[in-house]
Amino acid sequence: MEGGPLVNVHANDAAGLVQRLSSIAESVSFDVAASGVEDAGAEALAAALRDINCKLHTLDITHNNVGDAGAEALAAALRDANCKLHTLVIGGNSISVAGAEALAAALRDANCKLHTLDIVWNDVGDAGAEALAAALRDANCKLHTLDISRNRISVAGAEALAAALRDANCKLHTLDIAYNAVGDAGAEALAAALRDAHCKLHTLDIT
């Protein structure tokens, strides 16, 4: 990763994760993908992100066992003024509506610096997509890249995201909503959004 060393940790105890992170003072990218991390590990990482000395800007926690409690802890960290994270990759976990709603609330917070959110292969559904879409319409939201593919999203979620793309406050330029069930109506809503003068999107995947 640009700007500092990439740290790959294969450990599933929360204390071990944070100890490893704190031992590398200049780390800006931290990779714990496929490491058996559960909610307790995510909560410990969230606590580290709130530390004023933490320089981390990229966290990859893909393919673990993080649920809504872990997502909520990370969301709370994103709202902390000390948190410098701008890229969160949390795909392939067990996050549902509650976790998505917590992350959406964080995106609306002025302290949140996140510009890239990868939440692929979870179970946020239409309600989670709608919460994230509402966040995209908030002036405080800085997100420009969202991967919400493989999340059991149907027409309602696609239409909510399309409405967000038409909002002047929405900064999104990359949206991946592939492998969902948006159907023709969802695709048509997204296509209509692309024709709106306010839409800044230049990359869309609805495979």
UniProtKB/TrEMBL annotation:
Keyword Repeat: yes
A Pfam match: LRR_6
SUPFAM superfamilies reported in the protein's UniProt record: RNI-like
Name of this chain's protein: Uncharacterized protein
Residues making up the signal peptide according to the UniProt record: none
Chief site of localization: cytoplasm
Keywords linked to the UniProt accession: Leucine-rich repeat, Repeat
Compartments, record wording: Cytoplasm, Cytoskeleton, Cilium axoneme
GO cellular component terms, A-Z: axoneme
